[in-house]
Design the sequence.
């Protein structure tokens, strides 16, 4: 790891964002701190000619120069220090000026100090081994080093991906016709009439199993390729429509659960707003008929037994359905007041 990259890693995320804005890096807003460090390092390497003189970036390029050419300062000093020829006096003796005597000592002192600094790495920067003179130096990019992500980085990425997926799903559902359809279904079911129709459907479906049994039609053979066995196809026995065993229980149920309660709801109508049938009168009449016909065994004979056996809960189920309708009617009337 070079000293320049280490300098970037020591910076905080906010400081890295400020450096990105300062050097003109684009599309860095969504980057995490490790990715932002790599992007800044590559951008500042590519634009070194333009950014090297910036005092804010001087620590980066100083460390970059030290890591890429550790003996550069020594070579420059040796090239600038030129050994001067001795000065001849008139009597032919050679002497050396004071500057010439001092230069080698200063150079030796400087070189010794540089060697100590290179051999003893500082606490803040990792040491970089100097390459041998005959070996060509290959530039090493920070992006080539395999970095194992830490748990905090993985958690941030997972949270970002989850948030993006949730926003995409929410946007898709909002733009689809599903919300409108759900609101329509909710508005339709939020009424007393919907409750009554649902109760009648449950009663009719239970009665169908008694008066209209299923008959065998055919068998679908097994398919070993997909691992399925034989499947029997059953359909309602429509010939039962021609018998009194079907029409007797069905007629009794229609009169006690639908026709007579509707007539009473039309005659005894206490609703406001122009409704043709009063749901409260309908459910009260239905409850009275269920108690007289089914609970007390008033009329019906064998048909009454078939209806009680078919409707879920028998006579008690009919009374419970009517009671729920009464409560819903009263609640709707209170809300309208």
Sequence:
């Amino acid at each position: 790891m070079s000293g320049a990259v280490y300098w970037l890693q020591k910076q905080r995320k906010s400081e890295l964002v400020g450096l990105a804005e300062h050097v003109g890096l684009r599309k860095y807003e969504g980057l995490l701190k490790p990715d932002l460090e790599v992007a800044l390092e590559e951008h500042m390497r590519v634009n070194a000619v333009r950014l090297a003189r910036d005092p804010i970036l001087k620590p980066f390029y100083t460390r970059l120069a030290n890591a890429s050419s550790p003996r550069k300062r020594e070579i420059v000093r040796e090239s600038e220090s030129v050994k001067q020829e001795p000065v001849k006096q008139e009597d032919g003796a050679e002497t050396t000026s004071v500057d010439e005597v001092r230069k080698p000592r200063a150079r030796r002192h400087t070189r010794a100090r540089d060697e100590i600094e290179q051999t003893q790495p500082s606490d803040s920067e990792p040491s970089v081994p100097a390459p041998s003179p005959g070996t060509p130096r290959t530039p090493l990019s920070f992006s080539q080093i395999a970095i194992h992500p830490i748990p905090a980085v993985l958690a941030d990425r997972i949270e970002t991906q989850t948030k993006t997926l949730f926003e995409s799903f929410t946007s898709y559902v909002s733009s689809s016709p599903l919300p409108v359809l759900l609101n329509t279904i909710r508005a339709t079911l939020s009424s007393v009439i919907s409750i009554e129709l649902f109760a009648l459907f449950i009663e009719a479906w239970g009665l169908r199993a008694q008066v209209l049994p299923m008959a065998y039609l055919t068998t679908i053979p097994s398919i070993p390729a997909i691992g399925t066995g034989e499947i029997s196809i059953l359909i309602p026995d429509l010939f039962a429509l021609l018998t009194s065993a079907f029409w007797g229980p069905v007629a009794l149920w229609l009169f006690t659960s639908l026709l007579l309660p509707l007539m009473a709801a039309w005659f005894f109508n206490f609703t406001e707003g122009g409704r043709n049938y009063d749901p409260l009168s309908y459910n009260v009449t239905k409850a009275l008929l269920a108690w007289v016909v089914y609970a007390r065994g008033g009329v019906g004979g064998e048909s009454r037994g078939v209806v009680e056996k078919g409707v879920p809960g028998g006579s008690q189920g009919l009374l419970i359905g009517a009671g729920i309708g009464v409560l819903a009617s009263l609640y709707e009337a209170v809300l309208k007041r």
In short: Residues 26 and 132 are 39 Å apart (CA to CA). The two ends are 79 Å apart (CA to CA). DSSP finds 14 helices and four strands in the chain. The mean pLDDT is 76.
